[in-house]
Amino acid sequence: MPTTLITGANRGLGFETARRLVAAGHTVYVGSRDRERGRRAAGQLGARPVVIDVTDDGSVTAAAEAIEADGGLDVLVNNAGVEGRTRDGGVLGAADLTAELLRPTFETNVFGVVRVTHAFLPLLRRSAAPVVVNVSSGLASMAGMTAPGTPAYAYPGVAYPASKAAVNMITVQYAKAFPDMRINAVEPGYTATALNAYTGTQTVEEGAEIIVRMAQVGPDGPTGGYFDVNGALPW
């Protein structure tokens, strides 16, 4: 059965995705920055813990070496993410935006995806059916963000949508570069997690559905796409 790594999996969407994939027969690595939280989560799930901080080269390299030593990887779920905030905790909008404040969001959401994907590419390329799922957002859609009257249009933040739009572009370009892999971006929906202080309008069970589905696509499945639970989304 497939071996899967999920970053940011000690809680929220990552944890629920891990739970569902373990139930589906995957060997799952629960990626967590905190060793003890990751260990506890993996114990609850019947999964394997691995320490991985997507913002740290050494941490990512060590995680890749550990998983390679255990036998390799078939599925990578780039789930770890943060939402850009001002110093007082507000959404980071255009009036407050500086390069300094934007950088941490991109470090995790964009550079983290590249850092982890690059480190695990050698393992994925040895798999018979490699899959990469990049957890994006509906706020990454230019079509959605420019449609007056929609919730996306009303969202004032800049850092998070910009970072996830970059994730979408990374997804497309990786998919073209590696046609033997299934590489897709997904929009879980506005899910109640720590990322949004649990203000989301759907459960983690609902939000994880599309992540789990795309983590299980076969070699004839879609690649280079952007999907929610109902199908393809406009870029």
Structural account:
The chain is α/β, with parallel strands linked by helices. It has a single domain (3-232), classed as Rossmann fold, CATH 3.40.50. The protein is built from 8 helices and 8 strands; from the N terminus they run βαβαβαβαβαααβαββ. It has helices at residues 12-23, 35-45, 57-70, 99-126, 142-145, 151-154, 159-177, 204-215, and strands spanning 3-6, 27-32, 48-51, 75-78, 131-135, 182-186, 226-228, 231-232. An 8-stranded mixed sheet has the order 3-2-1-4-5-6-7-8, with helices on both faces. α1 crosses α8 (204-215), α3 packs parallel to α4 (99-126) and α4 (99-126) runs parallel beside α7 (159-177).
Summarize the structure.
With 235 residues, the protein is an alpha/beta fold.
The helix-strand sequence is EHEHEHEHEHHHEHEE
**Strand order within the widest sheet?**
3-2-1-4-5-6-7-8
Gap between N and C termini, in Å?
33 Å
* Main sheet characteristics: 8 strands, mixed
What is the CATH superfamily?
NAD(P)-binding Rossmann-like Domain
Assign the structural class, choosing from mainly alpha, mainly beta, alpha/beta, alpha+beta, or little secondary structure. Answer: alpha/beta
User: Could you tell me the number of beta strands?
Assistant: 8
Strand content: 5-15%
Q: How much helix, percentage-wise, in residues? A: 40-55%
Taken together, the total number of domains comes to 1
User: So what's the CATH class?
Assistant: Alpha Beta
How much is the average pLDDT?
94
The low-pLDDT segments are none
Alpha plus pi helix count: 8
- CATH architecture assignment: 3-Layer(aba) Sandwich
Shape: globular
Q: What's the Cα radius of gyration?
A: 17 Å
